C-alpha cells in the first residue's frame, strides 16, 4: 500500500482501522505534521516517532505518552483553533486531530528540550512530601511579598486562555429506562440485549469509537466474528434503533442521587470547521431508571526507578496504537510486566515487524503457554526479574534488568518500554454513587460490593476479566434492567488474559529516599514521598493523599491510587482494606466550565425582567438600576445633567407640578374568597374588618418572630376581594408565606391567592397637577377630593381600557397609581405623557422616588429594616392592631428582647452642616472622642440630598432613638467626624396638607 | 438532584421544581398570643435536625404549588415516603428505614439493589 | 376622551425558525387563574361548559376554551376567543371559587417542529416523551431559570406559557436551545 500523504514513519501498512485516504494536517509546537482522520494527537505523534510530550508539573522532567485514553496523566497539551479557542491541559490521548489544529507542549521555558525549570529536578530532594507546608511557614510577612507570588507563578499546569470563550454550550435533560456507561464489549453487549425490549436506552462512551479495549485486540472473536467487525455491526444495529441514543465522545463524569448521571458530550472539538451553531459541548443530565456501569478497567504502570522517561508506556496503550491506529510505538521494544496482557502486546508488535527486545516478567512462573509462545517467536524472556534502572534523557535508551533474587544485572538497548502492573477496575462512578467497594485480595483490586443506587456493574469494572463471563454478565444485567427475555451470550475467543498484578513498588523503586519511582505522574509523587508522609505521622490515607498530593487533581486516582495505597499500607504495616480508599470525586475527567454553565451566559446568564413601559424609559434616556431581576428606571438625565442634578430636578418638578413613575414592578396578589378578610387579619398586623370597600390601607406583615417581613398598600375591591401590593423584591416570598399559612395551618379557610404582579402595569402620577393630568383620560370614576379621597381605590376605565385606580402617595403629594392590564401599559403611559408634558410633568426614577419617600419618612423594607426590626422599632407601631386576638408575629412581638429598653429605633438625622450628605451604612456614636473600639449606637439606613428642603436628610436606626430627639450624635468617617441632630422621620409636610387637595 | 414524588401530582419530579420548607409537623399553636416564652422558643426556634429519618416539608413551588411532607433519611438522602399536608405523621417501620439507610462500613456483601436474575425489584 | 389605548404584547413582531423548530408568539387570549375546591367545580363547569380536569398533568378543551390542570385546586383557563369568561365568573361571585383574570400576566410562545422536545429538554427537567407527556398534557415546571406552564398541543407542538417579563428570557432560551439542538 502506498500513502499519498506521509502520516508518520511508524505507521504500519495494513494495521489499524483508520483510512489512509483521509488525512489531516496539524502543528505541534509549530511543526507541521500529517495524521489520519480519527487519530488522536497521541497516535499522530507516535506515528511520527514523537514520545516527548511535555514537562512534568513539579520537577519539569521530560514526559512522554503513557496511555491511550482518559487515564493519561502526562501528555497534557495546549490545543487551539485560534487565540480564543485555546484550552490547556488537554489529554493528547483523547484529543482527536483535526485540520488546522495547533498543539503545544506545556510547562517548559524556553523550549521543551531545554527547560530552565528543570533545575527543580536537581533540587528534588527539597521538594519532598509536604514541601509547601514545611517551607513557607515564616516569617508571616513573607507570605504576601515572597511566597504567594512565587507559588502563584510556579503553580498550575498550562496557561489559561486570556480571551473570552466565543463558543457556546448546550444542556439536555434526558430520561431513559437504562443508561449504559461504557461502550466496550460489556456495554455494547448490554445495549444490544436491552435494546430489543424497545425501552429507552442511552449508551455513552468517552471515546470517538465505541468498542473500548476491543479495539486493541488483534485476534479476538465474538460469536465467531472478528471483534472489530462485531463492534461495527453492533453499533450500526443500535444506531438504527429509535429507542437507542448512542453518545460517543461522551464522558459520564458524575453519578448523583436518585440515578442522575451527568455526561459531557464533546460535539465539535474533533471537527476542523464546525458549524458555528453547533455547541462545542453538551451537558447531559440523565435520569435513568437503571444504570449499567460498564466502565472497564485501566492498566497500571509499574513503580521503579526513573519509570517516567518518555518512551515508557502502558502495554495496553501500545496494543491500542498498533491495532487501532496502525502505529508502532517503537522499533526496539522492551516489556516489563506483572500481568499476562502485556505479553499480548509483545506478540502483536513482533508479528507486526517490531523487534521485541525482551519480556521481563516479575512473576517467577508466568503462564507456560505464554513463555512457550515467546520462545517460539524468538523473544527473550526473563522471569522473576525486575527493571531496576533506565537510561535516556528525552527518550528511553536502555533498561537494566536484575533477577529479583539476585544482584546480577544485564542491560538491554530499547527505544520503548511497555509496562503493566495489572488492571484497576474503574469504580469511580460506582463509588461516587456511594456504592461500597470490597477488596479482592487475590487480584489486588477493589471491586463493587454494595449498590446504593439502582445500578449494576458489569465486565472488567466489576472485576470480571474473562470475556465469556463478562458478556454473560452483560446479558443478565441488561435483561434484568429492562425485564426482557434472557438471551444467550455469544462465545468469544482470542482475548488477551488479564491475569497477574502488582500493586505498590517494584524492586526497582528501592527502599531509600532518593530514587525517583513515580506513582503519580501528574502530581510528581514518588514512592519515597508516600513513605515519608507515613513516617511524618500521616496515618490516614486521606492525610497521605493531601500531604503528598497523590491522586489529586485530574488524575482522581485513575493511575496512582492503588500503588499509593499499597505503599502506604506497607509503610503503615497494615492490610490494604484496613487503610481504605480515598473518596472518588466527580468529575471523573475534567469538565469545562462552559459545559456546566451551558446556556446560562450572556443575556441568558439570568432573567432580565422589563416592565411594559421599559421601552419608553429607554427612549427617554433613562439610566437603569437592577432591582432583583428587574431593570428599573433609576433617573432620567437631561443634557448636561449628572445623577445628582437629574434627581434634584425630578423631585422638584414632581413637588411643584407633577411626576410620572413606573411602579409596575410592585408585587400584587389578589386575595379572593369568603374568608379573605379573616386571612388578611392573620397575615398583616393591621385590622382589616372595618376597611371599607373602595378604600386602601398601608399594611405591615411580620414573621412569627415579630420582625417586619414586608409592607404595602392593600385595597379592598369588594367584601371578599383584596388587591394586595408587596415590595418589588418581596413579591414571591410574600406569596409563598401566605400560601404556607393557608395550605398548612388554615386549609379549611375559603380564600385563594393569585399573583397579579404582571397582570397590571402601574403608572404613578404624583404632584399637585396629578388630577388635572389624569382626569380627562378617565371614564366612570369621579376623581374629586370628596368622591375619591386619599387612600381610595376605584374601578373604571382609562383611555378606554379597564383600570384599578388607586389614590395613594409614596411622595406625600396628591397622587394616583393607575393599574391597567399590562399590554396597555405603554399606550396609557403615552397618553398620560402626551397630556402631562405640556403641564410641566416629568418622568422620575427610583432614586427620586427614594428621596421623596424619605422626605416623608416612609420606610423601605430591606433598606430601613434588616430582619431585626419590629413595626414599633420602625415607628409604624400604629399599624399593629391593638385589639386583634391573633396575627402572624403577635407572640413574637412580646418576646422579652423585643419589648426591652434600648432597642434600635428608626429616627431622622439632620447634619449640622446642611450640605453634608451622610453615607448609608455609616455608624453612629454618642461621643466621638471615646477610645477605639467605640460604642456604636446604630447606623444610617437612608441618606439623600433634599432639593425641596435645601438640606440633607437621613434615616437611621439608633439605640433608644425615640428618646434622643434633639440630641447631637456623631458619625465618625475616615477623614472627618460629622455632627448630626436627631429629629423626626417626617421632614416634609407633617400635617399632610399637600395630600388633602 | 433528587427525584421527589409529589403526592398531589402523583409522580416523581425533579428537585428543581421543589423548594424545601423545613421541619414538618410543627403546628402553630391555636392560642398563639398566650403561649409562654418557653413554648414560643420551642415552636419557633428549636429544631431536631436528626441524623437519620427526618420529617420535612417541601413545596412543589414550580409545579402544583402544594406544600407536602416527606420522611427522608438524612444520610442517604433517600425518601421513605411523601404525603399530603395535614396527613398524620406516619409511623416508619424498621424495614422501611433499613431500605433507605446507607450501608454501614464493613457491612458484608449483600444482594445488589436489583438482582441479575430479573426478578428483583428496585428498592 | 382620547383614543382607546392599543395593546402591545411583549413579544410582538418576533419569530424564529430552524430546520428543527419554529417559535411564534401566541395570539392574545383571555386567561383566568381558576381556584376551586370540590364544592366549586359545579359552578366552574357551568361557566366553562365542561368540567375542569381532575387528573394531574391533564387538560380539557371545548371550543375555544382550554382548561389546564395546574394543581389540585388550580387551573389555568385559556380562551382563544373572547367568550366573556371574566364577566361570567364575576357574576357568579367568589363564595365557591376564585377567578382572577391574568390575560396580561402571562404570554405564550408556540413551539413547533420535530426537535421541539429536544429544545424544551435543554431547560426543562421533566420527561417529555409521548409516553410520559402525551398530547394534551400540561404542567407548571421550569425552563432554565424561568417558571413556565408547558402544554403539549400536538406530537411536535407545545404552548409555553410564562409571565410577561420572563418572556424575553424564555424566547431567547428557546432560540439558543433550538440552534444547538
CATH class of chain B: Alpha Beta
CATH topology of chain B: Folate-binding fold
Helix content of chain B: 10-25%
Class by alpha and beta content of chain A: alpha+beta
CATH superfamily of the domain at 169-297 and 425-493 in chain A: FAD/NAD(P)-binding domain
Q: What fraction of the residues of chain B are assigned to beta strands by DSSP?
A: 25-35%
Order of helices and strands of chain B, N to C? EEEHEEEH
The CATH architecture term of the domain at 169-297 and 425-493 in chain A is 3-Layer(bba) Sandwich
Largest sheet of chain A: 7 strands, mixed
Quaternary structure of the protein? heterotrimer
Number of helices of chain A: 24
Give the strand tally of chain A.
Answer: 51
| Shape category of chain B | globular
CA gyration radius of chain A, whole angstroms = 38 Å
Structural class of chain B: alpha+beta
Strand-residue fraction of chain A? 25-35%
Radius of gyration of chain B: 18 Å
| Biggest beta-sheet profile of chain B | 4 strands, antiparallel
Largest interface: A-C, 65 and 54 residues
- Order of the strands making up the biggest sheet of chain B: 3-4-5-6
The percentage helix of chain A is 10-25%
